[in-house]
Every structure is written in C-alpha cells, then in structure tokens.
C-alpha cells in the first residue's frame, strides 16, 4: 500500500465523516444554538455599562467553547462505535483500509467538521461584535484558534474512548476527561483542598490528563493581553502530540478487536 | 500435473466466542479445514446459528482466530494486500445511508485506489448489471431491502475480485432477484472467480455449487460434491403427463400426471418407454438422501 493511496483512503474516510455530520444536520443544530446565544449577548450588553464589546466577545467565545465541545464529544464518541454497532465497518475493513487508517480518517473528518463549525460560529461572533462597533481582533482570532486546538484534542479523547468502549461509555468517559482537563490546577493541589485525598493521585492525574485549561485564552484575548505566537506554537505541538498519542493507543486497542 | 491452486484455504482455524461477563463456555467454531480452487463455487450450508457467518468473518479478519492459518487469493491474512483480490457481501449489508448508491460506490472505489475514469466506468457498469442504475442518485436510506442487497453485490464486485465471500446473497430478494444472483454466480465462475457463499436454502446451493461444506454446531463435518456427500442415486423418479405408462401411478389430485420409479440401470429403457407411449416427459429426479437428511444426521463430534 503506497503512501499516496493511503492519503487517498484517509481523505475518503475523512470526507465521508464530514458529509455524515453535515447531512445528519447535528452540527448545524448546535451551531444554530451557538449563534442564537450570541444574539442573546446583544440583548445582555444593554444591561452592562461600557462593557458591551467584552460581554459579546466573552459570551461568543464561551459559546464556541461549549457547543464545540458538545460536537467534539458527541460526534467523536460515535465515530467508531456506531460503525461497529451498525456493522457498516464490516464492509470497509475488508477493503484495503487498515484499521489505523480508518481511525485516523474518522478523526481527521471530525477535525474538518469542528473547523467548519468554529468558522461558522466565528462569523456569527464577528457579526455580533460588528453590531456593537467592536471588531474581531487578532487576539480574538488567536483565542479562537486555541479553542479549535482544544476541540480537536477533545475529539481525539472521544475517538479514543470510541475505539475501546460502547457509545454511552465513550460519551461518559470523554465528558469526564473534558471536565477534569479543565480542573488540572485543582487536581494538582487536591490534597491541600480535600482532606485525605492522596497527593500522588492528584499529581498523577495532573500529569496524565490533558491540560485543557492551557487552551483557554478567552480572558487574555478579551482584556487585551499580548498573546505571543510562541504560546500558540506550544499549544499546537501539545495538542498534536497528545492527540497522536491518544489515536495511537486507540488504534492499538482496536487492532485485534473482534467485530461480531 | 500440479493440483489447481487454492484461491482460499483454511487450516486448523478455530475461534471461541464468549459472551462478556458470562461464565458460559462460549460458542466454538472449528477447527476448520477447507480449500477452494480457482473457478469453484462452494456452498457453506447449515442451519441458523451453525457458524456460517462466523466462519466468513474469520476468513476476512473481522474476527481474530484463536488458532490456524488462512490464505486468501494466495496471500496470508496477516498481510495487508489480501483485500485487493477479495469481495465480500455481509448478511444484511449496512451502508452509510445518507450517501446515494453511486456515492457509496465511489467511496469504496477510493479505498481501492482505483483510477478515476476506470472507477466511473466500472460503477456505472455494475449498477446497471445489478439493476439499480436508475435509483443510484437516491440516498440509500430510501432503498428497499432487495435494492440494498443488489448494491451490496455491486460493491463486492467493484475491485474485480478473484475470490468472493458472500453471506446469504439471496437474502431479501424476490424470486426474480434470486434467479439473477444464481445466474450471476454462474457467470462469475465462468470468469474464473472462486466463490464461497453461505446459505440455509438448499435449492440455491444445488443450483450453483460445485461442492458443499456442511456446518453444524460450529464444526464442518463434511465437505464434498453432491455425489460424494449424498452418494449415487439408488433410483430415479420419472414424471410424465398424459401417459399410460406400465407401472405408472397417478399423482394425488393430478389425474393426467404420472410418476414411475426405476432402478438406475433401467433409466434409459424407461424413458424410451414413456416417450414411445406418446407421453410428455416432465422431469427425471434422482432418488437419494437429501442435504437436509445429511445436516440432521451429521455428528460433528465423530468427524473432528
């Protein structure tokens, strides 16, 4: 199997995953609710004093984070498990498609879906900002990029669980990790906060769970902090490395899984 | 003269499927031994739950065998390239039903890395061959069960495979559809393709199979041609219409139809006799044990 034909297979699976999301209208529904939330921000800004741009940006970025996470978890947890349950995978894995290629292709399709939904929601945010004479600044663009990285990493968590467990467990597992990943600082010092909580456990969780908190540049972007490119580069490498490790583990677990 | 090359072979393949969190011993298939030559059709016959689908899944690596060796189109199953020359139709194939039939075929063609022009031509030819070309633009979710089965057959043939594994290919088809699949299988055999297909409908197997592999309780107690498995006929039954045959007995409810049973050595003379009395010959059927008899009597334990 040549690298070129492998790329074609990856693209075929990724594009099919994207089509699946679009045609099942799930992510459009979520994007619609996110845009609706941004509209409510326009109403809420009237009750603030000289803070309207910040409120619109805050709610807009929060909506991208929240609804993007929903898409990442619910689509990601379904990507492999549903194909096993519905037996669509039986037709594909007897073609020249390695199991690892299937997982990577599905993941890339999920990232394409996440990218599209983030672009749509960002357009909504830009329009909402324009109505309060605000602009979609470079800082907000950087925060959105960071959120996209975080969503792709969350998607990799969901795909990992999808390769190893049922759909319900995959949703549950990825939700728990997504929540704990935002509480890593708390976990690190959990033994100081919770009496009797083993210090080693807190540290182990801190070092093993993905640190999703690092990707949250919302406040820094809104309040005009300088966001150097090096931060984004670090975050990109972190997301890539962590996602690659999760997908590799998922592929390893899936390699010899029986398809009944 | 060297023996015909095996297009597919299983040697000592076995698998135990256990239910998670259950103390029961599980369902064991095998050890299975089977070899299929180029241009041969073998029917995997057995009742529901006999292990036919499990055997096909083992052959395709969908289930990982506990023991044994499998080769498809001359390539061991643990290598990557075996899929190029293999086509598979699962029982009740499941598709991405938001795609149209043509889109699904294109998707499958991309997995095989087929050149675009070749792929487009082959898709149209196959969709026409299986009779769903006019519906190929519609989402698969709008297809009837029979149409989905036809699409399943088309996708299995897209890579022009040397070996075909078909799980209940006639399932969900109307009588015309069944006839179509039977003819297609014979046509594919004439092209030199090797076919293993599972069925529990014995007339389908009798019509197209060169050999049968009987399955019972996860075992394959007997493999062979009809004559090898059922023995030579002990006699023949001649049916004729409007005949006054010596020794003929009218069939109940069919006043003008007669049957006569003869020894194999008397067959030619008996047929001449029928025709010389001005009768129309309807059928000549061998009298021997049926596949059903064989399935009910085969004892897997004694044949291991």
What features would you describe in this structure?
The complex is a heterodimer of chains A (260) and B (304). Chain A contains 13 helices and no strands. The mean pLDDT of chain A is 88. The longest helix of chain A has 33 residues, at 99-131. In chain A, α6 packs antiparallel against α13 (229-254) and α7 (138-164) packs across α8 (167-180). Chain A has helices spanning 3-23, 26-44, 52-78, 81-86, 89-92, 99-131, 138-164, 167-180, 184-188, 190-193, 199-208, 218-222, 229-254. Chain A has one domain (3-255). The radius of gyration of chain B is 23 Å and the shape is globular. Chain A binds chain B through residues 1, 5, 8-9, 11-12, 16, 19-20, 23-24, 86-88, 90-98, 256, 258-260, and chain B through 17, 57, 60-64, 80-81, 83-84, 86, 88, 90, 92-96, 98-99, 107-108, 110-113, 152, 155, 159.
Q: How do the helices and strands line up, and which of them pair or pack?
A:
The complex is a heterodimer of chains A (260) and B (304).
Chain A: H1 3-23, H2 26-44, H3 52-78, H4 81-86, H5 89-92, H6 99-131, H7 138-164, H8 167-180, H9 184-188, H10 190-193, H11 199-208, H12 218-222, H13 229-254
Helix pairs in contact in A: 1-6, 2-3, 2-6, 3-6, 3-7, 3-8, 6-7, 6-13, 7-8, 7-13
Chain B: E1 6-17, E2 27-37, E3 41-45, H1 52-59, E4 67-72, E5 75-76, E6 86-89, H2 101-112, H3 116-129, H4 145-157, E7 163-167, H5 175-190, E8 194-199, H6 202-208, E9 211-216, E10 219-224, H7 226-230, E11 235-241, E12 249-251, E13 254-262, H8 267-276, E14 280-287, H9 291-297, H10 300-303
Parallel strand pairs in B: 3-8, 3-9, 6-7, 7-8
Antiparallel strand pairs in B: 1-2, 1-4, 4-5, 9-10, 11-13, 11-14, 12-13
Helix pairs in contact in B: 2-3, 3-4
Which series of helices and strands of chain B comes N to C? Answer: EEEHEEEHHHEHEHEEHEEEHEHH
Radius of gyration of chain B: 23 Å
Overall mean pLDDT score of chain A?
88
Series of H and E elements of chain A: HHHHHHHHHHHHH
The count of strands of chain B amounts to 14
Q: Which blocks of ≥5 consecutive residues of chain B have pLDDT under 50? A: 300-304
Largest interface: A-B, 27 and 30 residues
What count of helical segments of chain A does DSSP give? 13
């Amino acid at each position: 199997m040549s690298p070129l034909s492998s790329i074609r297979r990856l693209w075929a699976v990724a594009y099919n995953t994207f089509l699946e999301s679009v045609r099942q209208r799930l992510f459009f529904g979520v994007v619609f609710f996110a845009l609706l939330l941004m509209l409510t921000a326009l109403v809420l800004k009237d009750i603030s004093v000289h803070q309207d741009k910040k409120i619109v940006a805050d709610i807009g970025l929060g909506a991208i984070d929240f609804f993007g996470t929903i898409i990442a978890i619910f689509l990601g947890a379904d990507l492999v498990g549903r194909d096993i349950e519905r037996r669509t995978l039986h037709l594909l894995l007897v073609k020249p498609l390695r199991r690892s290629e299937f997982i990577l292709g599905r993941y890339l399709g999920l990232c394409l879906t996440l990218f599209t939904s983030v672009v749509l929601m960002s357009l909504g945010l830009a329009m909402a900002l324009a109505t309060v004479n605000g602009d979609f600044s470079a800082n907000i663009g950087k925060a959105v990029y960071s959120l996209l990285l975080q969503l792709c990493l969350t998607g990799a968590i969901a795909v990992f669980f999808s390769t190893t467990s049922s759909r319900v467990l995959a949703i549950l597992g990825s939700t728990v990790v997504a929540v704990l990943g935002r509480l890593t600082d708390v976990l690190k010092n959990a033994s100081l906060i919770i009496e009797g909580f083993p210090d080693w456990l807190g540290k182990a969780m801190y070092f093993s769970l993905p640190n999703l908190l690092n990707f949250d540049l919302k406040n820094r972007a809104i309040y005009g902090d300088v966001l150097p490119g090096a931060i984004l580069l670090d975050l990109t490498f972190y997301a890539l490395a962590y996602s690659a490790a999760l997908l590799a583990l998922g592929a390893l677990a899936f390699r010899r899984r029986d398809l009944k | 003269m060297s023996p015909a090359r095996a297009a597919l072979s299983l040697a000592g393949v076995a698998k135990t499927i256990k239910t998670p969190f259950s103390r029961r011993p599980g369902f064991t298939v095998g050890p299975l031994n089977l070899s299929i030559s180029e241009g041969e059709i073998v029917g995997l016959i057995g009742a529901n739950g006999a292990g036919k689908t499990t055997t096909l899944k083992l052959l395709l690596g969908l289930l990982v065998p506990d023991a044994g060796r499998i080769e498809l189109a001359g390539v061991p199953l643990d290598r990557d390239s075996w899929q190029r020359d293999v086509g598979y139709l699962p029982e009740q194939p499941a598709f991405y039903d938001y795609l149209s039939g043509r889109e699904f075929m294109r998707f499958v063609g991309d997995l095989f890395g087929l050149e675009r022009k070749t792929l487009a031509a082959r898709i149209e030819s196959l969709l026409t061959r299986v009779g769903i070309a006019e519906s190929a633009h519609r989402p698969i979710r709008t297809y009837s069960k029979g149409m989905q089965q036809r699409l399943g057959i088309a996708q299995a043939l897209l890579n022009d495979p040397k070996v075909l594994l078909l799980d209940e290919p006639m399932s969900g088809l109307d009588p015309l559809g069944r006839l179509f699949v039977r003819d297609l299988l014979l046509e594919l055999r004439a092209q030199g393709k090797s076919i293993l297909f599972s069925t529990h409908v014995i007339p389908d197997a009798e019509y197209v199979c060169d050999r049968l592999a009987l399955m019972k309780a996860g075992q394959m107690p007997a493999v062979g041609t009809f004559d090898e498995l059922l023995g030579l006929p002990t006699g023949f039954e001649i049916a004729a219409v409007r005949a006054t045959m010596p020794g003929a007995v009218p069939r109940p409810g069919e006043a003008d139809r007669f049957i006569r049973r003869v020894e194999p050595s008397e067959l030619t003379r008996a047929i001449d006799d029928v025709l010389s009395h001005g009768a129309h010959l309807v059928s000549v059927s061998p009298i021997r044990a049926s596949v059903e008899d064989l399935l009910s009597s085969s004892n897997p334990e004694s044949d291991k």
